[in-house]
């Protein structure tokens, strides 16, 4: 075949080649490009730098095959393994030098990005794509970072949980930013030690993450260091958002408490109903016969007075029994407009005549103009009862019990403060008093449930309950309940 024709065919063959083929000078200027490249980037690329044209970079790409061909003075194949760990994909896959006599004058760079049907490469690409998909769509956050903390992988779930978009994360986020200060360092220290799941591994560490909006997110972290030729190149972390689990656990705890409450109240209720029945009958007799005697004429005045007192006291007994029944009758949770002062007074009515309260002065500083709140009055009675009993117990039956109510400054909540002059709560115990089963009382005297029940009831009303020590001794419990607490007549079966 004629030499020229052969050259023509050769040129055509290069042009028809499915991949991108360029010839670059040793300083990366494009000297020639095949049809495919020109179609994609225009003919004006000749004379420009390849890294700038293809990747918008001012300098040669990391891992460029031409660079390797240059250093080794021989052909270099840089397929794109592990490109999921590379922020910038490898632009040049295969490069080889062109010699003029003994000098290298230029390099050919061939891009195998389009599938060439050699089985291995295709399989490799498919596996790669599969892995990428797997990571991007994983149900947990997957975040990988290089040694400096620059983000290399950041999947969809990570965007959802941490709030940074994928672009934002890859461009400007540092792995340290998703932890509270110092924690990233701590995580790396644990990863490198072999005590937390083996060297380079970290299993099931519970840490706090920090979202873009500053929210702390409880996380269960599993992480691994990725080594290449024995050197650390990146870390990859699998972050499991624990918020749903924690919320569910809280709800379960609350339900358990409510059940305990219901149980406690049910047995109290049964007892009360029995006692009420036994008391009501003789009370009926007392009232009836007193009235009969009163109807007789010519009673001495002082006797009439005494009889009226008997009637009044019998009436009081009946009231007490009725209150006791009301108090313990609790089968469901029902919010209705209610007067918080009345709830406090009703509780006091039940306790004030008990021996424990005989030497306790009760001061009521209740605001007379409180608006009604939507609440379950019986549940609130339990709360006040628990706190008032605790106060009386803390004062060992002697002191001043002050009950205050009012509106908070922003007028959005009512507050009730119950203050005693007892020994107060030691600072180290203060964080625990609302925990279920926490008690400092002797066995048989306290179950440690009173305040935890109070807490869960107030939480159900969208409110808060706080304890503190008074500057001049004794403890104060302050309950705040929002005026608007959701639907009225909202029922929750216990
Ligand atoms: N007014 C108070 N002054 C000092 N300590 C208090 C006061 N109220 C509560 N405490 C402390 O908090 C603990 C927990 O109170 P809580 O009402 O939950 O349980 P309890 O009173 O010990 O038992 P229970 O109420 O189930 O009979 C108490 O044991 C006590 O140590
Ligand atoms: Mg108690």
Q: Which features would summarize this protein structure in a list?
A:
494 residues; alpha+beta; Beta-Lactamase; Helix Hairpins; 4 domains; 5-stranded antiparallel sheet; rod-shaped; disordered C terminus; binds adenosine-5'-triphosphate; binds magnesium ion
Describe what this molecule looks like in 3D.
The protein is of the alpha+beta class and 494 residues long. The chain folds into 4 domains: 3-111, PAS domain (Beta-Lactamase, 2-Layer Sandwich), CATH 3.30.450.20; 137-241, Beta-Lactamase; 243-330, Helix Hairpins (Orthogonal Bundle), CATH 1.10.287; 333-494, Heat Shock Protein 90. Helices cover 40% and strands 24% of the residues. It is built from 13 helices and 19 strands. The strands form 5 sheets. It has a 5-stranded antiparallel sheet with strand order 2-1-5-4-3. A 5-stranded antiparallel sheet has the order 7-6-10-9-8. Strand 15 (398-407) and strand 16 (413-419) form a beta hairpin. The protein is rod-shaped and about 155 Å long. The N and C termini lie far apart (97 Å). 24% of the residues are buried. The chain binds adenosine-5'-triphosphate and magnesium ion. The site of adenosine-5'-triphosphate has 21 residues, from helix 12 and helix 13.
